[in-house]
Design brief:
- By secondary structure, the protein is of the alpha/beta class.
- The chain folds into two domains: 408 residues, Amino acid/polyamine transporter I; 173 residues, no CATH class.
- It is 59% helix and 10% strand.
- It has 26 helices and eight strands.
- The strands form two sheets. It has a six-stranded mixed β-sheet with strand order 5-6-4-3-7-8, with helices on both faces. A two-stranded antiparallel ribbon has the order 1-2.
- Strand 5 and strand 6 form a beta hairpin.
- Helix 6 packs across helix 20 and helix 11 packs across helix 19.
- It starts with 24 loop residues before the first helix and ends with a strand.
Amino acid sequence: MQTATAKPETLIAPLAAPPHENSHMWKLTMGAIGVVYGDIGTSPIYAFRESLHAITPAGAVALLGDVLGIVSLILWSLTLIVTVKYVSILLKVDNHGEGGTLALMALVRTILYRNTTAFLFIGLAGAALFYGDGILTPALSVLSAVEGLEIATPAFTPYVVPITIGIILALFYFQSKGTDKVSTLFGPITLVWFGVLAATGLQHIADYPPMLKALNPYYALSFLFSHGDASFFVLGSIFLAVTGAEALYADLGHFGRKPIQAAWLWFVFPCLALNYLGQGALVMADPTTADNPFFKMVSGFWMLPLVIISTFATIIASQAVITGAYSLTRQAINLGLLPRMAIRHTSAEHSGQIYLPQVNWLLMTGVIILVLLFKSSSAMAAAYGISVTGTMVLTAIMTFFIVWELWGWPVWAAALLVGPFLVIDLVFLASNMLKVLEGGWLPLAMAATLMLVMWTWIKGSFIINSRARKREMKLERFIAEYATTYPRLRATHGTAIFFAADADRTPAALLQNMRHNNVLHDKNIILTVKIEPIPYVGHGDRAIIAHPAANFSTVLLRFGFQETPDVQTELMNLNRDAAATGIHFTWSETSLFLSRRSLKANSKYGLPAWQDVIYIWLSKHAAEPTDFYKLPVGRVIEIGRHVLI
């Protein structure tokens, strides 16, 4: 707790201990297997198949060089992108233990004070692309798993899409129950899934042992140079094998670096490698399996169990992406990139387990539309990859500046570390861009729309807040002059808490209450909530308190962008420690005053007319501040005013 104005350096404040620090390593590693690697763990269902079809039409006999080259490219893509770039390097580049695009953006903008608008746009683009991935992953993963029923019997073909939609509806419906209800099953089920991947792959490697040559990067390079332009197109399908890499970085704060690293190096990567080698060996031993090698790795009785476990695995992969979208949205709201939305906590023990109804139903609608639009995982694969490669490129760019500015490396050393991976990401992005006309336009269109929405909210909020600052009186001046300005002012018993956007400005609600009612409470608290560009703010740094007059106090409550502001709880904590804080009130004698804005479009002001419509619509559908800040409903008084935008 502080009693002075916050200094700039307090932006990087001591953090509350993340919940994973005191947990056991094995438990966190199991959780990482179940959540972090759910997405990348389902890639074997379709990645090798699509890569093979990109160079060898379905039904044709695959050449040994093609299969060796494709499997080698997949294995070395996993090695370079996941093992080296993400697991070995990027997991060390974090914002106080948190990873992901917005966490990096917040960190870069605190350490780099030039061109910060550029990094704001990078963060917006990364967040928008992640939402595209959040829609594509459930659609592609679940649909590809259900398509396994066609291998078991063609009679299921007409029912693949309806079954997929039914699973998706159930998946999103149960989100409101909370991930804590099913998260305990994630680890064991995914553990079995990776075991199945390893076992089926190991079984078929024996069918064609020379497939182990794919471990040699020579075959990956030979494939690229021998196939010319065609190999560049294949890279877009190869990338499907690493599409979950960005998710493991985004989940850094949930599990910690060491559990994620251990899970990948000692279990996940070996299982994936065995399965891809096994699929390649199967195709060489039996070319008729090239149309869908994953599901043809088993036959007879084992086919249905494989489809069932695949479906469960894809549901888990989808769950991880959906949960990530919730977390990303909370970050975006707290960083001022999106309007307030209703956030429900689904667990009393884990603050990260949240549910956002609006995001949930928007994602569900998008996923169902994709399934109905593409109808097959092969058709949808063309749309997949662009959003993830775009996010990877943006992450690499921000990583360079963190290594250079925060770590203090020379420019050449930072470029030497990050540059090669940026080149690889750009090559994969360029390859995926070739699929724009085949469906890749969809994630780009979604990302562009979301960026427009976020930029409109940022710009509109800036205009309104800037105009308000010009009109509002400095609090220090108000306290010195209010007695003479309002000579007929009457004192009323109790405490009034006024919300203010700036701690040093007089709240509009306070001025309006005095002008219209001619009353001032015995005690007046000017309360400001500030979201810092760090994930968590320690308890000792939560509140900054000042007492500029006998009947006036100012309280600045600071939260991290990973936290949900619980204002009532924090005020109660200050009240309990009244001897130290100087803040004392009785709830039954306390009123909380909020200023509600009624927005009116005006072409004379900053936003164009079409953006006015978007901003006003977003404002109308924003969550009530009473709910968002956890305020006692019965004690809140809202005072409205018209604002032009």
